[in-house]
Amino acid sequence: MQKIDELCDQETESQIADKVGTFPPLVLAAVNGHVKTLQVLIKAGANIEAKDNYGCTALIAAAQNDHVEALKFLLEAGADINARSLEDCDALWIAACFGHHKSLELLLQAGADVETKNKDGWTPLMISASDGEIEIMKSLLDNNAFLEAYNHDGFTALMIAAQNGQTEAVELLLEAGANIEVEEEEVSLLVEAIH
Q: Which of 18, 20, 86, 95 could form a cystine bridge with 100, CB 3.0-4.6 A?
């Protein structure tokens, strides 16, 4: 830790970033859940919204790796909960994608948008239904995730769960009130998406 303090005293964040390429030190610390290192870097003036070459901020990196304490610190330090990666994913979407329930819960409590979508129009409910992540789905549904949202291919979470054989996810979505019927004009869109 002393070495990090010394380095921060001697060099600016951009100089440090140049040494590691396109991964800012703050993001690297978040990837590994090093809260004390995050504290030192923020105190030294590191940009809390710095992004790596994938467009991920430290908050997104912490969510991806399920580092709850790092997430807590970054949120308290003012990290943008709505920051998005190059794939148009925010921290909540990433937590759902990787099945990180504790991180997802923390982000929901902090006010993350349960209806966030990635570049393909997938919501956290869709990605968790695809993978059969029941606890994640329950948390999202408890936070009023919209059951009838469509992705860019015209699929809802129920359709995605059914397509992937996620029976328990299908049951949960039906219990929550998901529409089992598809409107006639949606059928042609779905047929196109399947082929």
A: 95
Check whether residue 192 and residue 151 sit in a common domain.
Answer: yes
In whole angstroms, give the CA distance from residue 29 to residue 38. Answer: 6
Residue 37 dihedral angles phi and psi, to the nearest 5°? -65, -40
Using 50, 70 and 90 to split pLDDT, how confident is the model at 22?
confident
Say what percent of the chain tops pLDDT 70.
82
177: left (phi over 0), alpha (psi -120 to 50) or beta: left
In the block, tokens 């789905």 appear at 137
Characterize 127-166 residue by residue with b for buried, 16 or more Cβ atoms within 10 angstroms of its Cβ, and e for exposed.
bbbbbbbbebbebbbebebebebbbeebbbbbbbbbeeeb
Instruction: Note down the domain range covering 145.
Output: 116-195
Q: What is the pTM of this model?
A: 0.83
Residue ending a domain, among 50, 81, 113, is 113
**Domain check: are 93 and 54 in the same one?**
yes
| Residues in contact with 106: Cβ distance below 8 Å, sequence separation at least 6, in sequence order | 68, 71, 72, 75
